[in-house]
Amino acid sequence: MAHQAASAKRTRCVVCLRAAASCICHWIAPLSHAVEVLILQHPLEVHNAKGSARLLHLSLPNSRMLTGEHFPPDTLAELLAGKHNVLLYPDTLGDRSLGIAPPPALDPAIVLDPAQLRLVVLDGTWRKSRKMLYVNPQLQQLPRLPLRDTPASHYLIRKAHAPDQLSTLEATCYALMQLEQDVSRFVPLMTAFDGFVAQHLSYVMAHAEKA
User: Fold this and answer.
1) What does the radius of gyration of the chain's CA atoms come to, in whole angstroms?
2) Which candidate, 64, 59, 58, places its Cα nearest to that of 31?
3) How far apart are CA 80 and CA 138, in angstroms?
4) CA 189 to CA 37: how far, in whole Å?
5) How far apart are CA 68 and CA 55, in angstroms?
6) For residues 15-40, b (16+ Cβ closer than 10 Å) or e, as one string?
7) Model pTM?
8) What is the pLDDT of residue 159?
9) How far apart are CA 151 and CA 174, in angstroms?
10) Largest pairwise CA distance in the chain
11) How far apart are alpha carbons 194 and 118 in whole angstroms?
């Protein structure tokens, strides 16, 4: 029986890739969106129980998610072809001291047609995402979409290093709200995210009580 219980704990859901005991598939909230989303996920985030990118990807039908830190130039060129790309990333002056090129200015004209836009999202900690930007010069050439004046993060399960830091899911939702000029459409996904966070907190507390 002990062997069977241990085996059940190791079993992973083939959809959300989490342990069966902490499956988050019931929080998937598919919604329509015009802006295409490309999520580039750092390898160390794939099985991170606190990560929100998988839930984001499964809830956005017009999204694609790839895992890696450094992507071959040909692969990135193919991924970025066909649409106007905007990188969801702050325009921080500190990056330039690390050898990261300053981004080109975002042309307001390209955001007028959401269907012609692709939002590129880096999923990882601040340090990991900065490394991904550093080792992929093609990403440095993309105009950036920084987020400002966003609500406080609901990401209670992961420590933030700055008050305005958001989860990948939250940041992407706010970016899509801005680009598509539609807040209400993405509210169900934000609500699902709150449920995902509450589930994780409940799981952690239950295991702490057993310890």
Assistant:
1) 18
2) 59
3) 9
4) 15
5) 18
6) ebebbeeebbeebbbebebebbbbbb
7) 0.87
8) 58
9) 9
10) 63
11) 26
Pairing of strands 84-88, 63-67: unpaired
End-to-end Cα distance, the chain: 21
Q: Name the one residue in this structure whose structure tokens are 């329509």.
A: 32
- pLDDT single digits (tens) 164-184: 578 999 999 999 999 999 999
Would you report the helix, strand and coil content of the chain in percent, each value rounded to 5?
Answer: 45, 10, 40
135 CB contacts (<8 Å, ≥6 apart)? Answer: 69, 70
- Give the tens place of pLDDT for each residue, 1-54: 444 444 545 688 999 988 888 899 999 989 999 999 999 999 999 988 888 999
Amino acid identity, position 40? L
Amino acid 63 reads: S
Residue from 146, 151, 124 nearest 135 by CA: 124
More confident site: 9 or 189: 189
Six-digit token string for 100? 């990261």
CA distance 131 to 128: 5
